[in-house]
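User: As part of a screening pipeline, I want to sanity-check one entry by hand. Below is the sequence and the SMILES for zinc ion. Please return the complex as structure tokens so I can compare it with the automated output.
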Amino acid sequence: MMSSRGVFLAQAGGGRPRVRGRARTPAGRDGGCPVWPPSGRREARPRRTTLAAELRPASDCVVFPKLAEKKKFAFLRELQQFHTLVALFYNFGKSWKSDPGIIKASEEQKKKTIVELAETGSLDLSIFCSTCLIRKPVRSKHCAVCNRCIAKFDHHCPWVGNCVGSGNHRYFMGYLFFLLCMICWMIYGCICYWRIHCATTYTKDGFWTYVTQIATCSSWMFWMFLNSVFHFMWVVVLIMCQIYQIACLGITTNERMNARRYKHFKVTSTSIESPFNHGCFRNLIDFFELRCCGLFRPVVVDWTTQHSIDYDQTSGSGYQLV
Ligand SMILES: [Zn+2]
Ligand SMILES: [Zn+2]
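Assistant: Here is the complex for your manual check:
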């Protein structure tokens, strides 16, 4: 019975007969995925080569190791990695540079707002920003870092260097998702590298010997793996927290943290009742503005001008049906 390790290496050998245990083909000689050791004899450590030369065999075998042997399917490997990378940088760029929902007003509008609020006796800080001198829309908050009011403010993210609000929250979620995909790629790539390049296995040598061997086999790869695992943990926590708030609670991070400050939330010791929560399915459709070729009709709200929680979902004065 051939072991899974033997099968993997034999498949990576590129069309040659399968062999038991380690494959005995030279690294990359016939275009297939190279294996370690390059000859039949065992060596304690791989040869010292440049970093690029070390990474190349690993990247060749990371995606679709069987299909990659066939030239006509080789493009799938690059295509998958390329799309993940492009989507990651696109969503990061949009989170970083796009308008998060800045509430703008001219000097004339500011004077008019102050006079109107003063005459009606409602010039209080719950609806008026004394820094921006504007009437704050519902769900907005003044960002102390950026010194501006943001519509549907979620939080200020130092990681993307921008506020996360109504204008870029979807892109921020896309950034987290593709960042998680990229981290998984990194972890998978590291594991493939060790299987190919390091003359040790977990089952044969035990846990501590295995860890020591892979750490000395390529310290750079080991460092990359530790970094990936660290970032994997906090990104998973963050994206799960965000999805829970968006889909299940229908509130932002700011509203969840400061729910008692806002009159329109009913807060108990165990739950927060939000007037913006329309059910998990509807919340997701509205948040991501999913249309699916006309199958859904998301309710799109201009949160920069929405000053009331009394939504009219049919007239277009509040929620606007698309
Ligand atoms: Zn403000
Ligand atoms: Zn900010």
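Points to compare against the pipeline: Residues 196 and 258 are 52 Å apart (CA to CA). The first helix runs from residue 4 to 12.
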